[in-house]
Each structure stands twice: as structure tokens, then as C-alpha cells.
């Protein structure tokens, strides 16, 4: 077993994050996108999500990484559905999803299947983060 494996993977992740940051800067400088006041925050969220998907830090999301992530999110898909998602995101130009395609999908007006799944996952996470505890006391005026 290689004791350097973890260090090498960590270095790959740092390298990947720097690369994705440079691509985010391109989107921040692009007049097509930079009118969105929340763009920097969105790009940071998208970067983290992409890095979560890109399990081997190679820079692309392949069909197996997409499959594992959707299963983890409780939205398992068939091989054909996964291929359709990748084709939808890349426009049929690639068998893997690169970061630029991912960002264009997330910022674009089209509702790609993958985008919808990710948005629902984010909404579910927001619900989980709400404070748990006893509900506030109701008074008669609250009744319909």
C-alpha cells in the first residue's frame, strides 16, 4: 500500500480547485453572466458540488461518478437515463461532463434533468437545516 496516496489525492484536489476557481473567474468576467449579483456565491456552491461529483479529481464527471452521486442522493437512474443526462448537459459532444458544461447547465435557462435533481437536493438540505424542537405555541387567532 502506498502511504503517499492520500497526499497525492489531496494535492490533486487542491490543483483541481485552483483550476475550477480559474474557470469561475472566466464566468465572473463574462458579460453574459456577470450581471447576476449572486454569481460569485452560486459559482462557489457549483464548484463544491462539482468536486463532490468528480470523485477521482480528473476534471470530468463520467457516467460511473454520476451514477454513484445520484444513488447517494436517492435518485438512482438507469444506464440509459445517465447517458441521456450527459448528452443533455454536453449537447452530445462528450461522454463526460466538464466543469464548463456543468456551469453552463446550472446557470442556463434550460431545465436539464440533472439540474432539477441538484436543485431538489439543495432544497431538501435546506429543510434539514431548519431548527428542530417544539413548534411555537399557537393561539386562537392563528386558527383558520
Furnish the topology, listing elements before pairings.
Layout: H1 5-29, H2 39-53, E1 60-61, H3 63-72, H4 79-90, E2 97-98, H5 99-107, H6 113-128
Keywords:
mainly alpha, Recoverin, domain 1, 6 helices, globular
How would you characterize the overall build of this protein?
- With 144 residues, the protein is mostly helical.
- The chain has a single domain (8-122), classed as EF-hand (Recoverin, domain 1).
- Helix content is 60%, strand content 3%.
- The protein contains six helices and two strands.
- It has helices at residues 5-29, 39-53, 63-72, 79-90, 99-107, 113-128, and strands at residues 60-61, 97-98.
- A two-stranded antiparallel ribbon has the order 1-2.
- Helix 1 (5-29) runs antiparallel to helix 2 (39-53).
Helical fraction equals 55-70%
The CATH topology label is Recoverin, domain 1
| CATH H-level superfamily | EF-hand
Number of domains: 1
Radius of gyration: 19 Å
How many strands?
A: 2
Question: What percentage of amino acids are in beta strands?
Answer: under 5%
Q: Describe the strand arrangement of the main beta sheet, using strand numbers.
A: 1-2
SSE ordering: HHEHHEHH
State the low-pLDDT regions, or none.
none
User: How confident overall, as mean pLDDT?
Assistant: 81
Q: Roughly how many Å apart are the termini? A: 66 Å
Please give the largest β-sheet.
Answer: 2 strands, antiparallel
Second-tier CATH architecture: Orthogonal Bundle
- The SS-based structural class is mainly alpha
